[in-house]
């Protein structure tokens, strides 16, 4: 077991926003929520999937909805804990561990709130290795693990449990409920045993988030390029450097949707990159040609500081570096591409893979 305390939260939130590929919620809000919980309850113990007993009762928890809304509608610690306890009560079992369902600035820190409040260990891993906009888009789905029963809780005290015929129906019904709840809610879902977590999770995600956050901070202190530090850690590449000259963003059907246009500078001068997003960045097009697509990671960083920039905070005039990095290889299976490939999101193109080191 490893303990994560207050001194780790800033790095955790920053690194989680890197892996979140523009989605997963505002890292500053995520940091505040986790720090408040750790001050009240002390450090949280984390365990690797390999350390879980086969019969462990693992309940992931996170935020569902549009990140643009959560900036103004912040959940309470009680709301997070209630989602876990409501699902455990419905299942008739006691939770032994909490888990993170996706990497993201909020969704990697909200599980710390639940773990601290409930006094439970947290699994060092997540269900994606990045962030995706819909709740069926997780590696456990590829492993045949059901999303439901799942709990859903809003800030007013409304709560419910959904039990659906498959994971796509869980997304459809939970999304409708989330919209009625004000476009953001806390959910607990994909209840798993320890054996199922080992099969269906990306291991080590939280440790990677902390390492990424510290890499950025260390590079800045040592007057090195923080963007290069991220590229090196993720085995990725810089595909564009420039200035945001246009941003079209809207909140629709419970998502933050839109496009961003980045005019190239320096090595990218004379070219334009367009990013297309639905909570997360899904497509990167250089002068009309796709150069990277989901399920690989498309990440926007502040060019000077290396700070990750989420889709809801991207603004005209931002000087940015866009990097790409390979995803968990399971996403490039036939079933993975059917679940999260470009065509699922309405883009008529095959995945454009990020080069992977030999």
Quick structural overview:
The chain contains eleven helices and 17 strands.
Beta-strand proportion? 25-35%
Structural class: alpha+beta
Series of H and E elements: EHHEEHHEHEEHEEHEHEHHEEEEEEEH
- The first-level CATH class name of the largest domain: Alpha Beta
**Gap from first CA to last CA:** 32 Å
CATH architectural designation of the largest domain: 3-Layer(aba) Sandwich
Total number of beta strands: 17
CATH topology of the largest domain: CV3147-like fold
Instruction: Characterize the overall form.
Output: globular
Count of alpha/pi helices: 11
Organism: Geodermatophilus amargosae
Domain S-Me-THD-like C-terminal: 166-352
Domain S-Me-THD N-terminal: 8-163
Protein name: DUF917 domain-containing protein
Tell me what the structure shows.
The protein is built from eleven helices and 17 strands. It has 358 residues and is α+β, with helices and mostly antiparallel strands. Residues 8-163 form the S-Me-THD N-terminal domain. This is DUF917 domain-containing protein. Residues 166-352 form the S-Me-THD-like C-terminal domain.
Can you give keywords for this protein?
27% strand; 5-stranded mixed beta sheet; alpha+beta; 358 residues; single chain
């Amino acid at each position: 077991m490893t303990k994560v305390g207050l001194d780790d939260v800033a790095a955790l939130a920053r690194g989680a926003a890197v892996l979140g590929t523009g989605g997963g919620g505002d890292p500053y809000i995520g940091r505040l929520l986790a720090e408040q919980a750790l001050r009240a309850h002390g450090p949280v113990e984390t365990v690797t999937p390999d350390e879980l007993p086969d019969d462990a009762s693992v309940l992931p928890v996170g935020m569902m909805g549009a990140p643009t809304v959560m900036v103004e509608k912040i959940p309470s610690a009680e709301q997070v804990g209630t989602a876990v306890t409501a699902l455990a009560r419905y299942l008739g079992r006691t939770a032994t561990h909490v888990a993170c369902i996706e990497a993201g600035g909020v969704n990697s820190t909200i599980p710390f709130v639940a773990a601290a409040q409930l006094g439970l260990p947290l699994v060092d891993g997540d269900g994606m290795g990045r962030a995706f906009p819909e709740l069926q888009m997780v590696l456990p789905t590829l492993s045949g693990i059901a999303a439901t029963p799942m709990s859903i809780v809003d800030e007013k005290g409304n709560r419910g449990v959904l039990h659906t015929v498959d994971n796509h129906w869980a997304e459809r019904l939970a999304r409708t409920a989330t919209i009625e709840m004000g476009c953001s809610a806390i959910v607990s879902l994909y209840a798993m045993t320890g054996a199922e977590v080992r099969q269906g999770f990306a291991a080590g995600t939280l440790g990677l988030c902390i390492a990424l956050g510290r890499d950025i901070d260390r590079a800045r202190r040592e007057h090195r390029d923080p963007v290069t530090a991220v590229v090196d850690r993720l085995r990725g590449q810089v595909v564009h450097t420039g200035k945001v000259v246009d941003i079209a963003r809207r909140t629709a059907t419970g998502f933050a949707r839109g496009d961003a246009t980045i005019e190239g500078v320096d090595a990218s001068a004379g070219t334009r990159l367009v990013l297309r997003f639905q909570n997360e960045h899904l497509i990167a097009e250089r002068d009309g040609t796709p150069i990277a697509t989901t399920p690989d990671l498309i990440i926007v960083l502040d060019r000077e500081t290396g700070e990750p920039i989420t889709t809801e905070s991207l603004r005209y005039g931002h000087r940015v570096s866009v990097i790409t990095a390979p995803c968990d290889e399971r996403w490039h299976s036939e079933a993975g591409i059917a679940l999260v490939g470009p065509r699922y999101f309405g883009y008529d193109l095959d995945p454009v893979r990020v080069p992977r080191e030999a």
